[in-house]
Amino acid sequence: MTVTVRFAPSPTGLIHIGNSRTALFNWLFAKKHGGRFILRFDDTDLERSRREYADAIERDLAWLGLVPDRMERQSERLEIYDAAVQRLKDAGLLYPCYETADELDRRRSRARALGRPPVYDRAALRLSDEQKALFEAEGRKPHWRFLLPNFDQDPEQIRRTDESWEDLCRGPQTIDLGSMSDPVLVRENGAYLYTLTSIVDDIDMGITHIIRGEDHVANTAVQLAIFRALGAEPPVFGHHNLLTTADGEGLSKRKGALSIGSLREDGLEPMAVASLAVLTGTSHAVEAVATMDELGDRFDLAGVSRSSAKFDPHELVGLNARLVHAMPFSVVSSRLCDLGIQAEEDFWLTVRENCERVSDAHLYWQIVKGTVEAEVDPEDRDFLVAARRLLPDGPVDASTWKTWTDALKAETGRKGRGLFMPLRRALTGLDHGPDMGALLPFIGQQNILDRLP
């Protein structure tokens, strides 16, 4: 058996870091087991689905390093769903219901008032052909419900029916089908709900493992029953915890919360995003992991916590910085060129530990090659005049800074911050940055003289 998983987003918005957690879990699981990863767009909602969102999702996944082995669109598979629906109807497992949304709401309210669970009472099963014809004559269109296997002979005599599975993340799980309403699989307008299309696709595509968010746990028992009704052995399920903000707020595509596209445009590294998305809320410490192979070595669904995975988006910047600080020049050279930085390896090694993002190197390139506007504190002016006079002659090299500051210290008596900070501010316009001894040769003698009073 080849392990086959899928990530099935709806192209109704941009995916965020929470969505990427599910995609990454599936990708890493497939790669760990030598399996396949399918990207499947749930785009049967023609009013809300957009091709530009699907393209953006594909682009965002590729940026993270997730390239699918196969890609499908549910909007192109309607005939397969038609056949499945007919099969369920022929088996007497899909029955028409004519209640309006208001009528169903009133029934649920009455049930709650009487202390009963608001479960659909299967009243539609008692309709005669004449009653159905009257509803049709009124212009009502039926929605179709799947008859859950929670009875012996009489569907109105519902009994406790435990549906159990071994969850990859949560361990043994059991849900009573007798406590649930028969799910609607086909709407009044003939549109298929995701529950149906997803199961049909999972069967047709040979999905062996379904790894998704814990918000789908309650649906699993129903879906197991539908798999079996369609003559298929259900896949193995795993329900991981969900990412939330630090205050516990859930993420939403509609709000564009931490979309992968926005994180990319902010200059963050894909492995910083992947490290946070995968390791938050697990038994592993959240730290920057440089490669997907290394992240895969730490990935373990059994180590996923059952509590929600709260994270601070600012943590991304820290993870990103740690990755940037370790990046070799060979990895960033083309990106530096794209930023207009025509630098050699020594420049990158000098500035990288002061960069939270690779793009931060542009600031230091401007400092060494451009002009610097720095305000000189009046009390430092005489000191900087002396500094100009004491600058060693000849090319600036790795020894210049120490020779220069030693001479300044001897003449002015300054030391520590009082010695170094006025020079740093005058030469870079900043009060922090790379080691001045290493940076000074890139600034060069002429720029040094030009920036001193």
UniProtKB/TrEMBL annotation:
Source organism superkingdom: Bacteria
Motif ('HIGH' region): 9-19
GO molecular function terms attached to this record: glutamate-tRNA ligase activity
InterPro entries, sorted: aa-tRNA-synth_I_cd-bd (IPR045462), aa-tRNA-synth_I_codon-bd_sub2 (IPR020751), aa-tRNA-synth_I_CS (IPR001412), aa_tRNA-synth_I_cd-bd_sf (IPR008925), Glu-tRNA-ligase_bac/mito (IPR004527), Glu/Gln-tRNA-synth (IPR000924), Glu/Gln-tRNA-synth_Ib_cat-dom (IPR020058), GluQ/Sye (IPR049940)
Catalysis performed (reactions): tRNA(Glu) + L-glutamate + ATP = L-glutamyl-tRNA(Glu) + AMP + diphosphate
Principal location class: cytoplasm
Ranges where the Glutamyl/glutaminyl-tRNA synthetase class Ib catalytic domain occurs: 3-316
Chain location of the short sequence motif 'KMSKS' region per the record: 250-254
Entry EC no(s): 6.1.1.17
Keyword ATP-binding attributed: yes
Residues annotated as binding ATP: K253
Pfam families with a match to the protein in the record: Anticodon_2 (PF19269), tRNA-synt_1c (PF00749)
CDD domains: GluRS_core
Location within or outside the cell: Cytoplasm
Domain Aminoacyl-tRNA synthetase class I anticodon-binding, residue spans: 378-452
Broadest EC class assigned to this enzyme: ligase
Record keyword Ion transport present: no
Keywords associated with the record: Aminoacyl-tRNA synthetase, ATP-binding, Cytoplasm, Ligase, Nucleotide-binding, Protein biosynthesis
Subunit structure comment from the entry: Monomer.
Functional note: Catalyzes the attachment of glutamate to tRNA(Glu) in a two-step reaction: glutamate is first activated by ATP to form Glu-AMP and then transferred to the acceptor end of tRNA(Glu).
Family: Belongs to the class-I aminoacyl-tRNA synthetase family. Glutamate--tRNA ligase type 1 subfamily.
Entry protein name: Glutamate--tRNA ligase
Biological source species: Roseibium aestuarii
Lineage, opening ranks: Bacteria, Pseudomonadati, Pseudomonadota, Alphaproteobacteria, Hyphomicrobiales
